[in-house]
Structures are given as structure tokens and as C-alpha cells.
Amino acid sequence: MRVLFAGTPAVAVPSLDALIAAGFEIVAVLTRPDAPIGRKRVLTPSPVAARAAELGIDLIHATRVDEAVTAKIAAAKPDVAAIVAYGGLIPRPALDVPPHGWINLHFSLLPAWRGAAPVQRAVMAGDDVTGAVTFLLEEGLDTGPVFGTLTEGVGPEDTAGALLERLSHSGAVLLAQTLSAVEAGRAAAQPQAGDVSLAPKLTIDDGRLDWKQPALAIGRRARGVTPEPGAWTTLDGQRVKLEPVRLRPGDTDLQPGAVFLDGKSVLVGTGSHAVELTRIQPSGKKMMAAADWARGMATLESVVFE
């Protein structure tokens, strides 16, 4: 079966590899254009584009699937399109090109967490279980009928990045299985059922920690925004980046935002009990162990995160 693959970030690469390993013919890869990366803003191909180039697969670069891009997709004559985190909407004219439609691998248990950041929102909400589904893409936001489902437990220290990495590999297997079922005429998509929740794209503001919130909520937020956009707070008006924190339920005497060095542990007060910092990146410096940062502060007793 001839497959158009659409995807952009690193989490989509395992799916591309899985489809090739399963014997599908990848006729073209649709991905977003090269983007400036790093402090020097060097134009860099997307991870999917880089992998497709290694494999000698034709690339279609597009930020928006317009009439010209749709014509390129049609020229590739795909039987089906597989899409994993492409990063753009697919309009009706393009949806109608492949006879078997577009099959989307989405990293949530739809209809929970429809949108761009399902894994991050699941971690931030404290979900114990998440997963991935394959579904038939429609014009609505992740509304199409579901072909296949897998579940994945969310561990107490899982970051969004770690969870998404696991799902990218198990989901790749699910996507290959779904396309095999479509090719064999055995696929039967079922309408979504259950409560709908939305997972809008994260912004920098989503990473700000509010020390007046309970420690559990702060811990979930920090894990949910790791690695991107990252957790942060402010100190003396400067942004300070933080890696995920640990809960310290036995320490309840610190005011929200107040910092205290307890032996080798750096504690911060919250709206409930304290949390322990793991690593911290002060403004203009590199990420370092929290204890090393604390030892470099002249008067830690007066330090209060805002």
C-alpha cells in the first residue's frame, strides 16, 4: 500500500520507521519547513525531514496545506496518509486525496485531551493512565472515529517528555497495525465515546510555578512542562528555570516561595507542604544541582521565589 507520511518532531520518527519496517511504500513525507534552532538560529530540518532524507524519501515542506501542497500530495498517488504530530491542519481537499483517508496517531485516549499537547495536559491534570489511539482524520479537532487504542500508565515521576517517548514507540506499532488492517480490509473505526477534554498548545506562561498552589499541583505542572516549555519561577525579577521537583510532605513550616537549605536538600514552601528542588538554572547561567546553587547564595534565608 502506498503511504504518504506526515509528521515533524522526533516523536513521529518511530512511526515512520515502523511503517517502513512493516513493508509499506512511503511515497512522500509531508513535514514543516526547516526552522531556526539554537542561539545562532541555524536553519535545521525537522527530525522527520532528516530521517526521510536519510532514507531517500521525497519531501513536501509546508507550513500550510494549500492548493499547491494538495496538488503535490495528489501527484504522489497515496492509497492512505498516516499523520503523527505534523503540526498543521489538513483541509478537506487534501483529506479527500487518498482513497483510505488520513489515519492519525494521537497520544491520548480520545475524546480525552483533544489538541496539540495531550501528554503534557494529562500529566499536569494528574491522570494515572493515558495512551494513544489511531483514528480517521476529519476537519474537526481530533473528532474522527477510532481504529485502535493502547494504554500507558503515568508514573509518579514521569515527565511529559519521558511519557511521550514511550508512547512514540508503542504508538508506532499501533499505527503499523492499523494500516495493515486497512490494507486487508479488516479495519473498523468506532465513534468516540466519553467525556471530551481539550489540550491546547503550551505557552511559556504554562511553565510558571505558582507557589501558593498545593505541592502536588506544582509537581504535576513541573513534570508536565518538561522538557518544553520548561518550569520556571522568578527571583528578584529574573526568570529562573527549574527541573521537576520532589514532594516533601513532612515539611510544612515554609511559607509559599520561601527557600530553605535542609542539609543537602533545597526546599521551597508551597500552599501545602514543601517541595525539593532538583536542578536549577539561574538567569544567565547553566543548569546546576540545586544544592550547588544554594551554597553559592550569600543569604539563602532571604530568598523567596515569586
TrEMBL record:
Reaction catalyzed: L-methionyl-tRNA(fMet) + (6R)-10-formyltetrahydrofolate = N-formyl-L-methionyl-tRNA(fMet) + (6S)-5,6,7,8-tetrahydrofolate + H(+)
Domain Formyl transferase C-terminal: 201-297
Root EC class: transferase
Alphabetically ordered keywords of this record: Protein biosynthesis, Transferase
Keyword flag Protein biosynthesis: yes
GO function terms (MF aspect): methionyl-tRNA formyltransferase activity
Annotated ranges, domain Formyl transferase N-terminal: 2-177
Protein residues bound to (6S)-5,6,7,8-tetrahydrofolate: 108-111
InterPro entries: Fmt, Formyl_trans_C, Formyl_transf_N, Formyl_transf_N_sf, Formyl_transferase-like_C_sf, Met-tRNA-FMT_C, Met-tRNA-FMT_N
Gene3D superfamilies xref list: 3.40.50.12230
Pfam families named in the record: Formyl_trans_C, Formyl_trans_N
EC nos: 2.1.2.9
PANTHER family, sorted: METHIONYL-TRNA FORMYLTRANSFERASE, METHIONYL-TRNA FORMYLTRANSFERASE, MITOCHONDRIAL
Role of this protein: Attaches a formyl group to the free amino group of methionyl-tRNA(fMet). The formyl group appears to play a dual role in the initiator identity of N-formylmethionyl-tRNA by promoting its recognition by IF2 and preventing the misappropriation of this tRNA by the elongation apparatus.
Entry similarity comment: Belongs to the Fmt family.
Protein name, per record: Methionyl-tRNA formyltransferase
